[in-house]
Design goal:
The protein is about 50% helix and about 20% strand. The chain is α+β, with helices and mostly antiparallel strands. The strands form two sheets. Strands 1-2-9-4-7-10 form a six-stranded antiparallel beta sheet. Strands 3-8-5-6 form a four-stranded antiparallel beta sheet, with no helix packed on it. The model is unreliable at about 295-300 (pLDDT under 50).
Length: about 300
Amino acid sequence: MSQPSNWPLPSGSLRLVVPRTVTVKLTQNPLCSDLYPKASGYYKHAKKHTMLRRTHDDNLLIYCVEGAGTCQLENTSYSINAGDLLLLPRGVAHSYQASDDNPWTVYWIHFSGNKSADFIHYLNERRDNFIIPVGVNARLIANFEILLESLQSSINFSAFIHASNMLRQILTYIAQLKPLAKAQLVAHQFDLELVHSLMQSSLHQKLDLQTLAQSVNLSKFHFIKKYKELTNTTPINYFIHLKIERACHLLDISTKSIKEISYSLGYEDTYYFSRIFKKVMGISPNQYRKMRDSTFHANTE
């Protein structure tokens, strides 16, 4: 496998490598032998992140969601900006680095599989177009997050199968985004996906209206008005619902305490978090978990 960089991980960043013993099992399993991740991660504001590979024996997908960087391929330099995907097939020597002034924030996946070349051709029919602009997309970011969570919480082999099929979903969804991103760029529309992506990447903290409005260069008044026209809800209400969706996901897949989940979503007051959760879901986090556990036991008896 092409080794990930040894860039020192700051707080909030993540690097996960699939153990070789698991990779061997993935290559032999009919549910994922066609396509599977070998390593994945998230680098936040990756200052001084750089990599040079003269040999590259798997495939690499990098998704820049903030900041900028550059990539060198066959003596040609390419600029990478927020919303760009960098797709580097097996065998393509390359180097890349984050911008000094505006270092990128990126999700990345090293992957392989019997049909990985077919997926790459599906996304890049010209075979020499390594940059795919898709915009900063909330759903795509969420898919990367789910893949990372699956690898991180891999208590059994089924988690790796799920991660492999999430990779398949990511690649096929990118194909859908390509024409949509072009249309939005031409139309210069209100970038709702950018707003939702900012929310998605800020689930661990507080996010105010001023920050959201500035992301699309609008005043708070015009931002709220435009957002409600497009979604029939307020931006803060949507952000709260995203947080509670993530809370439900964490309650489903992890054994973290309610307090730990509350803190991970930017709520320092666990009781306040529980009230918000109940307002959205109709039941408390504890009741949700008990209901989930009772359903699980009923299905396994």
